Every structure is written in C-alpha cells, then in structure tokens.
Amino acid sequence: MLNRRFTCQIHQLIHHCKPTFFNFFPLRTYRNKSPTGINSETYRKKSPTGINPEVIDYLTLSLGFSSPQALSLCQRTPRLKTLENPRSVVYFLKSLGFSDTQIRCSVNTAPQILNAHIDKTLKPKIKLFQDLGLQDYDLGEFFSKNSALLNSSLERRLIPGVDFLKKLLLSDKDLLLVINRGKRILGKDPEKVLKANSEYLMECGIVGKQLSMLLRRQPRLFLMKLGDLKKLVARAVYMGASVESKMFVYTIQTLYCMSNDTLMGKFQLFYEFGFSKVDCADMFRRMPNVFKTSHEKLKFGLSFFLNTAKLKKTVLVNHPFILMSSMENRVIPRHKVLEILMSKKLLKQQPSFIAVLYLSEDVFLDKFISKFPSYADELLAAYKGHLLESLEEKETESIT
C-alpha cells in the first residue's frame, strides 16, 4: 500500500494542474539552413580568420563533407587548427573497423573528437562500450549515432551512468538498446536526473520488471525534469488510473508518448461509434495501450466488431485488447472460418468470438479446422487465403 502522504501529493498536483493539464510538452521546430552551391575554393578565400583552409580541404576531400559543412564544423570547433590530430583520430577509428560513412556521421555530430587525445580520451571511452560487446562494424554503427558520448566525462558521466542503467535494466543486453533510444541518457548526471526520476517512479509503485520495461521502451522519460514527471503522474491519476494497478506503468507510457490532441482524437472516434465517456474511461483504465493504436486501425476495428461481427459495445469495453489484434492475420480470418462452420451447421452452438480470438494458433487450427477434415481445404483457404494472395502478388511483381 502506498502511504497517504504520497497520495496527497498526487492530488495536490492534480488540483494545481487542471487548467492546463494537457499542455505539458510544447513542441518546438528548429531549422538548420546551410548555403549550398559554393565550391571549396570559394570557402578557402572567404574562410573567417583563424580557420585553416587545409583543414577544410581535408574534411571535404578525405571525409566527404561539402564545403559549407566543412566550414560549419570548423566554426563549431575553434581548436581545429592543424591536420595532425584529425588524421590520427580518423586512422584510429578506421583501425577499429569504422567505415567512412560511420566516421563522417560521428564527426558531423561531434566534431570535437577530431581534437581529442586518442590514448587519454578516446581509447578508454570506446573500450567501455567494447566491453559491453560492441566490435568492428557494430562499434562504428553505434558511435555514428552516439558520437556525442565521446565528449562526455568518463568518470563523472559514462561509467556511473552505465552502472546505474545496468541496475535498473536487470539485463546487460538491453543497455545498448536504451542508450540508442535515449540519446542523451548517458550525458546526464545519473545522481541528479536518473536516480531522482527512478526513485520517484518506484514511489509510484513502478518497480522491478515494470521499471525495467519502462526504461527500455521510453528511456527519454527518465530524462524529464522531476517536476514534469510528477505532472505526468498526476495526469494519469486524474484520468482514473490507480498507482496500485499493474496497468499504471502502461498509462504513464501511453500518456508520455502521445499529445493530448492525439489522445482526445482517439476518444472522439469512440464517441462517434456510440461509446460514452464512461466507456472510454473504463477502456483506458483496463488497457491504455489501445489508445496508442493508429486512428485508421481503430476505426476499421470498431466498424468490423460492431457492424460485421455484431459484438455489443460492452464486450469491447470489457475486452479492449482485441482492438490491438491484427485484423488481417487474426480477426477477419477467424471470423470467416466461424461463418463457414456455422453456415454448414458443423457447430452445435456459436462460440464466443472473443474466446476464439484469445486462442493460440495451434489450438484454433486443431479445434476449428483439423477437426473437420472433409472441409479442411475450404476452411484453410478462408483462414490463410489472404497470405496466399499476397504471395502470388509478390511472385507476379518479381516476374514483371
């Protein structure tokens, strides 16, 4: 049971946040324009004082940057004066198995690495990730997307961050996945950001495997300001989620990755099919992930279940999970099989369509197709016909 003090804090946040409750994450759009169509010689002549034209030539001729890009990199790295260190760094990265493209991407994101000391700075930082299992091409691919890590402090950021993430994830194999998804997660002070947020989530009852799952799926959530994270939790409670429910973590995940406009658009879709606000609130509490389903899939699913399968709205409210099922590969084929069996009066009574959807593939085949060998071909055609048609289309396309 969670203590009363924590519950009171949540309700205080709700009280203060109601007026602007769904406007926590304003989006900003940044545009980065660079000149084009200017050759290297022009940039050599117009290079600002302090930029070595030979460095620009090296970046363009050896690393494949355009002249505008090369000049921009030099301006971002004022200490890039000579060619000796950049050449050594590029040679070192190639010796580790980095491709030219991977080196170019790494430099483009973090041009400061061209000035880095190889033995004192690059080697120990790269070794940390080699010890995690990255080698050769995979090592280069990782740093082509995360080269900013090479600018972070090994002792104050990388090692403490890796150690802290290992404790939360319960498995080393997920560590690289989290770092790739949460680009800046190792660039933050683990004591001030990761620890504070994870401890607050644990206060909310999100612990162990659930905390690990949330970190794998939404690592950037752990980089939020603590105040914003508390508002997100308050928003979940305001929408009816209970911090003592096992579904609370999925509510947090859903609300974090969706804007209020998108979420309200999904609710509006349900209203259009005759569901009440209470119905939607019940479904959101039972299965918040349903509202992450695309608008098109939800609309098609609602239409099929209500109009074709003739299910009552209460069935969908009580079993919202079926709206996440594959319509093409699971729902429609099984419905077709049941229609054939009922039309031929091969079943004593019509089975619950919901129960049928929950069956595993093997159990469904055994119970509704293999059991009727005289009609097996027809039933299989109804069940897997869409796959055969898709295969035939691909074969036709390959021939033409």
TrEMBL record:
Coiled coil: none annotated. GO terms for biological process: DNA-templated transcription termination. The keyword Transit peptide applies. GO terms for molecular function: nucleic acid binding. Keywords: Transcription, Transcription regulation, Transcription termination, Transit peptide. It comes from the Eukaryota. SMART domains: Mterf. Pfam families: mTERF (PF02536). Transmembrane segments: none annotated. The keyword Ribonucleoprotein does not apply. PANTHER family: CGI-12 PROTEIN-RELATED (PTHR13068), EMB|CAB62602.1 (PTHR13068:SF173). Belongs to the mTERF family. This is Uncharacterized protein.
